[in-house]
Amino acid sequence: MELYNLPHSPYAARVRMLIYERDLAVDLCDPPGGMGSEEYRSLTVMGKVPVLKHGDRYLSESTAIMEYLEALYPDGKLTPEDAWQRSQQSAMIRYVDLYFAQALFPLFQQMKASPRDQQVVDAALVNLSAELKRLQAWYELPELAPSSSLSLADCVVMPVLFYVVSLSPFFGENEPLLATPVLAERWAWAQEQAASKRVLGEMAAGLKAMMSPAN
Ligand SMILES: N[C@@H](CCC(=O)N[C@@H](CS)C(=O)NCC(=O)O)C(=O)O
């Protein structure tokens, strides 16, 4: 199996975190032909990363890939056995994709904008701090309370927190997790776990490369 991925992508990062945490036999590769190439588009409907190649089949969408890997290798899976707990976790992951990630997009856009639109930035920061509180509220549910090992929710959340922590200082917000101590604690904890530490380091290197003047 191969995972087509890029270091900075939070969607690819969550799958890599699962792969590292579970020590799954999946090779990590760049998208064949490169992003946007005819070759890559011919393999995947969406043309995005990540994509899992299994034999001659290709699966896109990070959450579907995580579910597939968890189903394929059930021994030691991170997915809870309990149906209710599993569904709460799915709901949290859907929250991250449908709502939380949306709160980050205006900041990504304003990073590239010249000049920046301060009104957009201010509104985005207010919205982001509201979403951080909602994200924390998910971790406060009994079914999703932070545990002593990485959960699937952590695999999804830590890469987006990486962007919260990395982008906020560019907009004058140096401690974006100050008002959300549960998130701040889990974030600090994730820096010490082998799988998340490795992925967050790869993301930092990927972001640095992406932001270098050559790119
Ligand atoms: N919903 C998708 C999102 C994947 C996604 O947006 N990937 C970005 C990188 S972070 C991408 O490939 N962008 C390139 C493009 O859209 O052409 C997933 O969960 O896998």
TrEMBL record:
GO terms for cellular component: cytoplasm. Pfam families: GST_C, GST_N_3. Residues 82-214 form the GST C-terminal domain. It comes from the Bacteria. Gene3D superfamilies: 1.20.1050.10, Glutaredoxin (3.40.30.10). SUPFAM superfamilies: GST C-terminal domain-like (SSF47616), Thioredoxin-like (SSF52833). It comes from Zhongshania aliphaticivorans. This is Stringent starvation protein A. PANTHER family: GLUTATHIONE S-TRANSFERASE OMEGA, PTHR43968. Residues 1-77 form the GST N-terminal domain. InterPro entries: Glutathione-S-Trfase_C-like, Glutathione-S-Trfase_C_sf, Glutathione_S-Trfase, Glutathione_S-Trfase_N, GST_C, GST_Omega/HSP26, Thioredoxin-like_sf.
